[in-house]
Amino acid sequence: MTGSPAERRRVRIETGGPVLVEGPVELTGDDGTTVTADRFLVAVCTCRRSKRYPLCDTSHRKRVRTDT
């Protein structure tokens, strides 16, 4: 492995959910746009349903309809 522990970022993949990255991070999209997040943990959208893409807004969660 290269890089000191201070340079490495921990990434956790959530099944059916976002990729969690220890922040702060800078994300560059395939169109060249850049988003920065200064949070200590950043959720990166993998389903592309997020209105804040590439950041997750929990749009991947199943919606349960309750008719009363």
UniProtKB/TrEMBL annotation:
Residues 22-66 form the Iron-binding zinc finger CDGSH type domain. This is Fe-S protein. SMART domains: ZnF_CDGSH. The keyword Metal-binding applies. It comes from the Bacteria. GO terms for cellular component: cytoplasm. One of its GO terms (molecular function) is 2 iron, 2 sulfur cluster binding. Keywords: 2Fe-2S, Iron, Iron-sulfur, Metal-binding.
